[in-house]
Amino acid sequence: MLDIKFIRENPDAVKDAAKKKAMEVNVDRILELDKERRDTLQVVEKLRAEQNKASHTISSEKDDRKKKGLISEMRDVKKNLQESEGTLEKAEEELNDLLKLVPNIPYDDVPVGPDASANVVLREVGKKPKFSFDANDYLTIAETHDWIDIERAAKVSGSRFGYIKGDLALLEFAIVRYAMDFLTKERFTPVLPPVLVKPEYMEAMGFLHGEAADDAYYLEKDELYLAGTSEQVIGPMHAGETFKGEDLPKRYVGFSTCFRREAGSYGRDTKGILRVHQFDKVEMVVFAHPEKSREELTYLLSLNEKMMQELKLPYRVVHISTGDMGLAKADMYDIETWIPSENTYRETHSASNITDFQARRLNIKFGKDRQYVHMLNGTVFAIGRTLIAIIENYQTKDGEVDIPKALQGYMRKKKLKNAPSKK
Questions:
Q1: Which is catalytic among the residues 84, 230, 350, 352?
Q2: Could you give the C-alpha distances from 265 to 211, 262, 325, 339, in angstroms and in order?
Q3: Full-prediction pTM beyond 0.85?
Q4: What is the CA angle 140-143-148, rounded to 5?
Q5: CATH numbers and ranges of domains, the chain
Q6: HEC profile for 323-365?
Q7: Is residue 256 within a helix (H) or strand (E), and if so which, with residue range?
Q8: What sections of 64-104 are H helices per DSSP?
Q9: Residues 47, 31: contact at Cβ < 8 Å?
Q10: Where are the alpha helices (DSSP H) in 185-278?
Q11: What's phi and psi for 190, nearest 5 deg?
Q12: Which of 188, 201, 238, 252 is CA-nearest to residue 373?
């Protein structure tokens, strides 16, 4: 949420940000309601003072006739107060609803455009594999070795689910352990967060509007959301708290299972585990000093690139455009990994700077002057997609899959080798 004072003083900047993010925001109505709220609040405070004064005077008045007159006057004050409080409440409610729709201000160097078509590829890194044989897609290889079972998952859970089995399941844990070891050396604190989130924190994190809201699973009976990403749960961990200045940056790396409806993706990537309702992720969440958050974003991106280079997977870095970054972000980069069977790249990592947008809603501050922190997040590995990338880029002529050298110590072998499936 943006500071209403900032909106009041910079309405054109807010309108420009909404336009760049292709979002409809009625800034003029927000300003009208803000003025109405402030004017009405003054009236309410004046009437409350009159009511308190009258109440005190009545209690000390000895003359019954004067007391009756004062009581009559107080009834009028009370009636006016109730009407003004009702007006104030209505204005505040509408204002708060509109403020939740105001997007964060993107930085000036963010590519401007309505959607992903305006994203800018900054660099391509690594050599794409050249196969001397007819290469297969990941699902053909995985089903041959009984690593992925889509059919039985559909029987049990429905579409867009999969069983990950055998060596591929072990490879997932190898990736997670590798990421945790890598990032704990960088002084990230490992955390296994809950996967259920209260609505007020999903709201505060900016995930209950637009496509993000459509993607969320809500357990109505329990009034809880299933987390769609670890940041939704790790971010609110410090809600209402104030960090000491020397404690920043505070860095976490979390692992969790995530859940998304994949609303709006019907008919796309329906086969396999590329786009599923349940998936695992390793996620970085950082609470930073406002003057250091841009530097911190560069740092998070560099960590993701170092890990990709150690896994020797070809990738590209993409600067995300204003229209593709969503409500809360001020800046965002994706890493997309090469998928040979599709002859294209697919998103596997991200790094975003949310500035104080979430911290303001969560009331997370730092220092003696209690400034709002800046919050950042970054997907380290979207595990399912990383498994896909390893299978396809590391496949061999004999139908097996080599294990990236950086993961071999965790797997205690150099190849993924399972007996053919016996269905």
A1: 350
A2: 11, 6, 17, 19
A3: yes
A4: 120
A5: 4-99 (1.10.287.40), 116-416 (3.30.930.10)
A6: HHCCCCCCEEEEEEEEEHHHCEEEEEEEEEECCCHHHHHHCCE
A7: strand 250-259
A8: 64-99
A9: no
A10: 199-204, 210-215, 231-234
A11: -70, 145
A12: 238
Among candidate residues 92, 94, 310, 347, the one labeled active-site is 347
Active site residue 385: yes
Let me know if 260 is a catalytic residue: yes
| CA distance linking residue 325 with residue 340, whole number of Å | 26
Residue type, 95: L
For residue 106, give the nearest of 356, 379, 328 by alpha carbon: 328
Q: Average pLDDT across each block of 10 residues of the chain; the chain has 423 residues. List them in order.
A: 92 96 94 95 89 72 66 80 91 93 95 96 97 94 93 92 94 98 97 96 89 89 95 97 97 96 67 88 97 98 98 98 95 98 96 97 96 97 96 94 97 82 48
The one catalytic residue among 8, 48, 177, 275: 275
Ordered alpha helix ranges (H), 231-354? 231-234, 293-311
What gap in Å lies between CA 388 and CA 300, rounded to an integer?
23
347 is catalytic: yes
Cβ contacts of 373 within 8 Å, gap of 6 or more: 243, 248, 287, 288, 289, 290, 356, 359, 364, 365, 366
In the set 260, 294, 346, 361, the catalytic residue is 260
Cα–Cα distance measured from residue 268 to residue 162, given in angstroms and rounded to the nearest whole number? 16
